[in-house]
Specification:
Layout: H1 6-14, E1 15-17, E2 25-28, E3 31-34, H2 40-49, E4 59-62, H3 78-81, H4 84-100, E5 104-105, H5 115-122, E6 130-133, E7 147-150, H6 153-162, E8 164-167, E9 171-178, H7 187-198, E10 206-211, H8 213-217, H9 220-228, E11 237-240, H10 244-250, H11 259-269, E12 282-287, E13 294-296, E14 304-306, H12 318-327, E15 342-345, H13 353-363, E16 373-376, H14 381-389, H15 392-399, E17 402-403, E18 424-427, E19 442-445, H16 448-457
Parallel strand pairs: 3-4, 3-6, 4-5, 6-7, 9-10, 9-12, 10-11, 15-16, 15-18, 16-17, 18-19
Antiparallel strand pairs: 1-2, 2-8, 13-14
Helix pairs in contact: 2-6, 7-9, 13-15, 13-16
The structure holds iron/sulfur cluster.
């Protein structure tokens, strides 16, 4: 029998009609995650054509991109706290879910949160599933051994109507990550170092399988951070083999299988890892033991360096110079010590409870520097509650940080949480493109530890120089 990779197993399990030279494969979708931004057009098309949603029970809806991060107790609040277009999107989402019979994790639910945070949290994300969402960072769910990728608005309509999607089979890239991480180095540093190594197009056309001793030792939240940013290396998706860590994370979650179904599911899940000898189109290796905390200096996530290093002079060309000018940085000089205006802790990359605990370990007993505004936005209302039950909110407030309701917030600034033009923001999110956090905003991507170190130092700092306090 031919050895198969994790990707091949999941792909083959879901092909309804194989691809030909002329037509893509028809792929069955197990879980469709939807939110208020990429769905209005799709629902309008369904309405105009009199089509119902094929599987409302396999469609999980939340509101995250445009939602205010200040409390909303009634929809009337939206007119006060949300931008006009954001409030319209939110109202339309509520109406669309009601009309098409889709359960919405909305303002009245403590299960609301960022779409890529609540899927795993509810146990809807499971190994072996195909999962799609109208958001690029859908690759997050690959941390469970699911094949998960972002789709466009038109495809959202296709999945709503048919629960299937036309797809060309991607190639495969194995990323072998081995070695023990040093203190102060986290999953975010691994993925930034990888993208710096292979480039923002290093994974184009591929599904990445992350594997090796480092990956096996990571908890699920760190695994999600890595898979989340697969798209920043150009990859279609990122996957990791399900193992006991995956199983323990999912055990008892509301949408995970129960009883005898659980036992059968676990057996299926643990048979998914790539077979010994499975082949990949390409392989890349990364020595995790040599990594340091990373930060970005330019306008894509591949422009990343160890926090103590100088910006490399090996690049040239107009796009590099444009990025340097936009970021107001110079080749040959370090980012370390550069004054910071804002620190954003949040996004589907780094807003989970372990991220918040790390931030608290730096902020505890310290103050956010006078020149810095710090915004901490949990990934979901459940994480917010968990953080508050641990007293983390008190640590954040005592340090002078702003503690908010869940949502995408300053990851992309659609809800009004933006970085003013020219200001430098150290962000735990996933994209540092020009204007991503607001027109003229300058974004530096980093781990929660490095971002928190910048907040208390007032400038870009090495988190290893600050003692953490539990
Ligand atoms: S946090 Fe950012 S990347 Fe994640 S779902 Fe929201 S907008 Fe998309």
């Amino acid at each position: 029998m031919t050895a198969k990779s994790l990707f091949e197993k999941v792909w083959q399990d879901h092909v309804v009609v194989p691809e030909t030279d002329d037509t893509p494969a028809v792929l069955y979708i197990d879980l469709h995650l939807i939110h208020e931004v990429t769905t209005p057009q799709a629902f309008n098309v369904l309405r105009e054509r009199g089509i119902r949603v094929r599987r409302p029970d396999l469609t999980l809806a939340t509101m995250d991109h445009s939602t205010p991060t200040v409390p909303v107790t009634s929809l009337k609040d939206l007119d006060v706290v949300a931008e006009g277009s954001a409030a319209r999107q939110i109202r339309q989402m509520i109406e669309n879910c009601r009309e098409f019979g889709i359960e919405l994790h909305g303002f009245d639910r403590d299960t609301r949160g960022i779409v890529h945070v609540i899927g795993p949290e509810l146990g809807a994300t499971q190994p072996g599933k195909t999962i799609v969402c109208g958001d690029s960072h859908s690759s997050t769910h690959g941390a469970f051994g699911a094949l998960a990728f972002g789709i466009g608005s038109t495809e959202v309509g296709h999945v709503l109507a048919t629960q299937c999607l036309l797809q060309r089979r991607p190639r495969t890239l194995a990323v072998n990550i081995n070695g023990q991480l040093a203190a102060g180095v986290t999953a975010k540093d691994i993925i930034l170092a990888l993208i710096a190594k292979i480039g923002v197009d290093g994974g184009t056309g591929h599904v990445i399988e992350y594997r090796g001793s480092t990956v096996a030792a990571l908890d699920m939240e760190q695994r999600m951070t890595i898979c989340n940013m697969s798209i920043e290396a150009g990859a279609r998706a990122g996957m990791m083999a399900p193992d006991e860590t995956t199983v323990e994370y999912l055990r008892g979650r509301p949408m995970a299988p129960q009883g005898a179904d659980w036992d059968a599911a676990v057996k299926r899940w643990l048979a998914l890892p790539s077979d010994p000898g499975a082949s990949f189109d390409r392989e890349v290796s990364l020595d995790a033991s040599a990594l340091e905390p990373m930060i970005t200096f330019g306008t894509n996530p591949g422009m990343a360096i160890p926090v103590t290093a100088a910006i490399p002079e090996r690049y040239s060309g107009p796009s590099f110079r444009k990025a340097m000018e936009y970021m107001q940085v110079e080749a040959g000089k370090p980012m370390l010590g550069k004054p910071v205006d804002l620190v954003f802790i949040g996004s589907c990359t780094n807003s989970r409870i372990t991220d918040l605990r790390q931030v608290a370990s730096v902020l505890r007993g310290r103050k956010v520097a006078d020149n810095v505004k710090m915004l901490i936005v949990p990934g979901s209302q459940a994480i917010k509650q968990q953080a508050e039950s641990e007293g983390l909110d008190e640590v954040f407030r005592a340090a002078g940080a702003d503690w908010r309701e869940s949502g995408c917030s300053m990851c992309l600034g659609m809800n009004g949480d933006t970085v003013p033009a020219g200001q430098l923001c150290v962000s735990t999110s996933n994209r540092n493109f020009e204007g991503r956090q607001g027109i003229g905003a300058r974004t530096v991507l980093a781990s929660p530890l490095t971002a928190a170190a910048a907040a208390v130092s007032g400038s870009i700092a090495d988190p290893r120089t600050l003692e953490t306090r539990q």
